[in-house]
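Page 37, top half.
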Amino acid sequence: MSRSVSRTLPLWTAMAAAGLMMAHQVASKAIRDSLFLSTHDASALPRMVMAAAVLSVILGGLSSKLFAKLSPARVVPLGFLASGVLQIGEWVLLRINPSLGSVIVYLHTVAFAAVLLSSFWLLLSEQTNPQEAKRRYGRIAGMGTAGGVTGGLLAARWTTMMPETSLLVALGILHAAVGLLLVLHGGRVPATGAVSAVWGSPRKALASAPHLRYLAVLVLLGTASAATLDFLFKSTAAATFGKGDSLLQFFAVFYTSVSVVSFGLQTVVSRIALEKLGVARVVGTLPLSLAGGTALAFVMPVFPLFAFVRGVESSLRGSLFRAGYELFYSPIPPAEKRAAKTVIDVGCDRLGEAAGAAICQALLLLPQPSMVSMLLLATGGIALANSWVAGKLDKVYVAVLERGLLNRAAEVQLSGLGDWAVDPELLESRTIELPRVEVPVERVSNTMPADLAVRHLAELRSGDSRRVRAVLAIGQGVDPVLVPAVIDLLAWDAVSSQAKNALIATRGALTGVLSDRLLDRNTDFAIRRRIPPILAAKPDHRAVDGLMEGLKDERFEVRYRCGRALDLIVLNHPELKPAPDAVYDAIDRELSVDSGLWRTRRLLDESSSSDQMSHLDEALMERADRSLEHVFSLLALILPREPLKAAFRSLHSEDELLESLAMEYLDGVLPANLRDKLRLLERRPVQASKHSTEEAARLLLQSHQSIEIKLRQLAEARAAAEDGQRE
């Protein structure tokens, strides 16, 4: 049965929780670094980072196993409440043993708080579809960065009013408030059951999904480069400002400034950047900027420049990188996401920090100037490698959308269609069988005697359906001399099926003459619309060229049937695939129409089986939008068929998540101009069209012409019925 995602977390709740959570994160970073560097030497920092990384990996694995059994909506609020209680306990411990207390605060802030941050975004991703995520995540992250500014100001001003360690009590209250918000207003997501065996283990999840491995490497390299730069920044900061309140003040001002810049980038730049540049380029701004900044710092190795580069890295990580990175998880199925997200967000993040800390620990053996230079070289080299990984993410994101689209489609029951169990066999468009006429094995002469040809031509032009069918039923195809006359018979409903079969059975090159008649605007419309299936039965490059030109015809039905014929040819003969640019041009022409005309296109005699090409999706034959079906037929010429067919079905379903996945997938594979036009045509309501006088006259004449054609076909059908009665 169709199962929609329950969006039980109100936007205001998510924004408020994000603001409180990020206020805690920024303020806790300031007191974490100040407490640790005030009670321990800076040389102990790499070992502390590695210990925190080990704890993070353990907590990440445990949380993944917990999410495999329980919904994040149940676990995450309790986690924030527990963190608040622990933070107050740490305040008590600091009064007893400052050295041990600073270590516990560091581990809590780095490991436990990081798991909660990842879990919060996991909760959001399970309640938000990809299209909605683009709209909501910017506002939620924006409120989060605003909260970060508040947290930084709180940390900066706290020591002027209260003892430094008492800030931990305020931090505990912030996390407890997040937990209470989620308990009272977060609602519940319907249980999806336990994670399958494939995804129950994070190791199996990463081994089974290449896109998750890309994300894991992206996170690991990103935090490794950030860790080496962070050590350089903090060690030089401690040497510059000393210990105690002045160091806390500096860190508070620094993290507040980073939050202000992040807020500006998040609210003003991120959404536009995602729509215009794509996920890969937005995520790639972080490693590219870091590589450029370290190159500049290598030339001028001074503390203000180290602080500037670290500030740029932190600002981009909290804004553009976060917005693009979190989008990857929105289309991933919940079971897969629960198994891997926390492990990647926390485990790989901390492993990256541990790797960076190990590099720093090794370089501590070098003299100070050499150590600084080597740290900058290591940071820049890792950042460049991460830039290459980020450059692959556009393709990875499309692959994630394909998986999410097909997995969601497998769960959906379309109204009126019964269960739609999407599996590879169903999603593969079946080969469309065209009527074929068996030709005798013996060699058939290319031409018949002149007198026989004349007699057959006379029979074909006799107007007597019995005599015409007698000639067409010979079963050896059509003599070249008779081909033009047989093509003319395609307009006669009573014999059009036999004429088509005879042309298909004819040996020799007919694609030239068929293409010429298809493209001749003086040829009867009834003939032109019945030529594409014949060309599809004689696939070669000339047939493809003729059908591609047929996509420029003024009549929609001709273009529609040319598209279906091309789809059949490419399905059976991929080597004949047309050039993508030509296909995109044809799609652009189809989308450049009035919305009223787009929604009212129909085919003549859709129920007729004599000349009808099979539809893109037979299950939707009665309810599909013909304009949309035509566009998807053309897209299937150059894009993967399975996700396209699932996307086509999704746009006729009532499942919001499935439709959102489809639109997001199309956003990823279509050129920007086509994507925007398709959105406008599919989303704006049907309104009365406002045409100029000339346009109205043209449409009226076009309608009149269609009526005349229909009346003529009805008269022909009546005459054929009378002939049948006489027979």
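Page 37, bottom half:
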Amino acid sequence: MDLRNVAIIAHVDHGKTTLVDELLKQSGTYRENQATTERAMDSNDLERERGITILAKATSVEWKGHRINIVDTPGHADFGGEVERILSMVDGVVLLVDAAEGPMPQTKFVTSKALALGLRPIVVLNKVDKPDAEPDRALDECFDLFANLGADEDQLDFPHLYASGRSGWADAELDGPRKNLDALFKLILNHVPAPKQLKRQDEDFRMLATTLGNDAFVGRILTGRVESGKIKVGATVQALSRIGQKIEQFRVTKITAFRGLGQQDIEEAMAGDIVSLAGMTKATVADTICALAVDEPLEAQPIDPPTITVTFGINDSPLAGREGKKVQSRVIRERLMKEAESNVAIKIADTPGGEAFEVSGRGELQMGVLIENMRREGFELSISRPQVITRDGANGVEEPIEEVTIDVDDEYSGAVIEKITGSRKGELVEMKPAGVGKTRIIAHVPARGLIGYHGEFLTDTRGTGVMNRVFHSWAKHKGPIPGRRAGVLISMENGTAVSYALWKLEDRGKFFIGAQTPVYTGMIIGEHARENDLEVNPLKGKQLTNVRASGTDEAVRLTTPVTLTLEQAIAYINNDELVEVTPTSVRLRKRYLDPHERKRMAKTL
């Protein structure tokens, strides 16, 4: 069967997963009466909740006697490690661009990786049926983007289509028939070359592992594209590391290929196929699975280095062990090591005491997703404030700079520019109109300056602004950047918070907790209205007397507390504070708890 391997890349919310839904439907992947869900490729619970793609996933469709393997890639820069590996499995890319927004930072990030690999792009201008769509402007911006990224003449001579993924049509002309996606299927078959590996059927078997999975029945599963030769179930092969070191020799127990949304067992895989193998115990991502006669590994695509680090520790607060089952450092370490195996963009290091672990990654969202997954699995953790990773370069100490693209209402642009170019040490690169009443701001800001900024940004823009960021370069250290200005309200007692006490303290600031919430000494229960920290007593009830009051007492009406999400809590804390994460709670606290004091407080609570 004629074979094509193609990746779909796009910025967050440009309609990539919705378009894949329509490709699956129109290729006959589903039965006529089969129940289907929206965004079928977003199979992970977090992906469906947040409406973003986190994990790269492959599917396969058959159209008029041709098989097309489609890879859905993440649309957020924090998960770029997934993108870099996946692009090595395909021969072409479909670049999906919102006709109103045009190319955005993640589009630029992934496209640069695709062009560097020599892949020829197809541009699909999506959502052209929106009232604010400007497909001609978006197309011109795509051409400028390719030129700026150093595309060659073949890559600059790209075909384009106008489409609406939700309505399920794509046409070569803007005023086309708007019936189906046949134009996109035809363009993929005509423009994307067949895998060059098809000519290497007679060579020794070689495959580069790009993703790692686990199955309760067959164990480790590695997915990749067969670069040469053939492989049958029961064959004995070996795994080589990036430097050619032999890792293990094993027997292939299972081979599966993508068929629609599922995977189907096959007896033999040939060069060019994207398949999953089982049977190994040690081999991992970026290793070469090959015949015993092969001694040279395949070249693995280099992964961009991490830019931030977060310390994961055991939950040592007085409330530890009450809501989660996995609390020991050994269990936390095993889980983090397992994550680092399958996610090459994450690095794990032990701290000197052995009770905590430094986890390095691409950004706050990537860390937030990892922590959220762990808490859902029953872990209890204490998390430090993210720290930016610096390096020694030509200019001395260098730090990562991010390119920030902001779309904001004109009236709020002044406040945004003042924040990012003032205390956060950013440099304004470009400012231009972006449609009716909107301004697009592009700035280069130190990654340190963006930690904790998103909440302020939403406040400054009344929730209407959209901010996207992507790693840009390393630059000389910009000096100190001030952190959170407001102080915090800290509990000075152990017990359960009382409505009357919180009511009396409301003029001191805003609270993160409500009445009947367990608190302990050192726990942060709110934000102080001033810059200093303040210790308060949330347990102090009303003094009762035996004198009858004339009339009724005042009714206690508390202001609704501020509920911080996990990402907001991590971005909010200072260096001397921690986030306590359990399966049901997110609490903030100061670091200074003494071990003996913790035991005494735990008994009190």
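Margin note: The chain has four domains: 2-194, 198-290, 391-476, 488-573+588-604.
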